[in-house]
Design brief:
six-stranded mixed β-sheet; 12 helices; binds adenosine-5'-triphosphate; 16 strands; alpha/beta
Length: 335
Amino acid sequence: MIEVQNLVKMYGDHTAVDHLSFRIEKGHIYGLLGPNGAGKSTTMNIMTGYLGATEGKVLIQGHDILKEPELAKKSIGYLPEQPPVYMDMTVREYLQFAAELKKIPKKEREKQMNDVIRMTGIREVENRLIQNLSKGYRQRVGLAQAILGFPEVIILDEPTVGLDPKQIIEIRELIRKLSKKHTIILSSHILAEIREVCDYIMIISRGKLVASDTPENLENRLKSSRHIELQAKAPVTRVQEILKEVSGIKKVDYRKDNNLMTTAQIETRNAKDIREEIFTAFARNNQPLTTLSLSQTTLEEVFLELTQGKYTASLAEQEIRDDGKEEVTGDGSDL
Ligand SMILES: Nc1ncnc2c1ncn2[C@@H]1O[C@H](COP(=O)(O)OP(=O)(O)OP(=O)(O)O)[C@@H](O)[C@H]1O
């Protein structure tokens, strides 16, 4: 349906989009997620023909957005980061103007305008000048304009930015409703926002696509570095001795909580859940455990890992810490 092929956008010598390729298939809500400045708006502006690319191309239903803009744009509706609303028009005048630009047949215009006005909840402001509307209403007018013509794909750049919580919920509901008949692509720098509405996430960092999958699969990606945490009423050396009897351990990070308690963060080989083996080893040694738990990877960790490498950094830590203050380098503990 949409194919983005090897897209590059340079602003002077700054690379805003760096060899980006992805495909959009019918019937999903795609989320383009990335920190500020990652290149989301630039990508969306190129996809919708607002901006030319330095390299690469965008095909919409097989039509090149630059070479056949009219045919390509027929299938897309776009809400840019700054809604393209004309301040000195009333809402209705502006939608009339947008309907003409979109070449919606005259006899369908009134009905379509009334439909989008109802769907976006702007009936009570339809005869007001856009300059007198609040940010939330202007955003909805921009959204109404994007939906007008009911294109197959609706592209929304940060659609809820600047809205109050009630408006955010309303816009999300509208996006979900629209997704029954339209393919939606929306961008956000907020993970919660994307997770809430999207069934497919594309994570972009420094202009590059670093991951593209369902939220569940993304969470599973880092399961290979799953942790088991245990706490035992014993000194670090005793916990080390017992864990030497357990196979399948890749790495252990020890922390001495006080003279009697030790916490160990265990990374296992192939993300295997070896809690039973650990429990049995401690029982065999007559050593009570106060905690034994499995820590699951969250989407936040995946996002941070892919955009900043933070999670990797935390996994690399291999020290024994005394009350979290004094850091003592351990023996590697790579059992
Ligand atoms: N017209 C421009 N001229 C020069 N640099 C630009 C221009 N537009 C964007 N950039 C730069 O390109 C990079 C990508 O910007 P872009 O707006 O696409 O990111 P974004 O992911 O949409 O971020 P945000 O969420 O902050 O809008 C940033 O470093 C930005 O400063």
